[in-house]
Amino acid sequence: MAWAVLKRAAGQVRAVMGGVYAVDFGAVLLLAEAMGALNPLLVELLPEVEPIIIRAYGRDNE
């Protein structure tokens, strides 16, 4: 279920004119709670996948 949350939360990022610099953890965790998927795995996984998500947004801008 953690994967489903991450896929749905792809747009929950913090950005400035220079691009995406972070994932909005608060929004992602609220989404997970609403989906009934808030669990320790997601909480542990989120900081680990944040750099991957940020790099993916950077590649989209190139």
Write the layout of secondary structure elements.
Elements: H1 2-8, E1 13-16, E2 19-23, H2 25-34, H3 40-61
Antiparallel strand pairs: 1-2
Helix pairs in contact: 1-3
Describe this structure in words.
This protein has a two-stranded antiparallel ribbon. The radius of gyration is 12 Å and the shape is elongated. The model has no long low-confidence stretch (mean pLDDT 88). β1 and β2 (19-23) form a beta hairpin. It has one domain (2-61). Helix content is 63%, strand content 15%. The protein has three helices and two strands.
Tags for this model:
62 residues; alpha+beta; 2 strands
Task: List low-confidence stretches.
Answer: none
Overall structural domain count: 1
Which structural class fits the helix and strand makeup? Answer: alpha+beta
By DSSP, the count of extended strands is 2
Distance between the termini: 31 Å
Shape, please? elongated
Sheet-strand content, in percent, reads: 5-15%
Question: Largest sheet, described in full?
Answer: 2 strands, antiparallel
Percent helix range: 55-70%
- Counting H and I runs of at least 4 residues, what is the number of helices? 3
Rounded to the nearest angstrom, the radius of gyration is 12 Å
H/E element sequence? HEEHH
Please list the strands of the largest sheet in the order they lie side by side. Answer: 1-2
Average the pLDDT over all residues and give the rounded result: 88
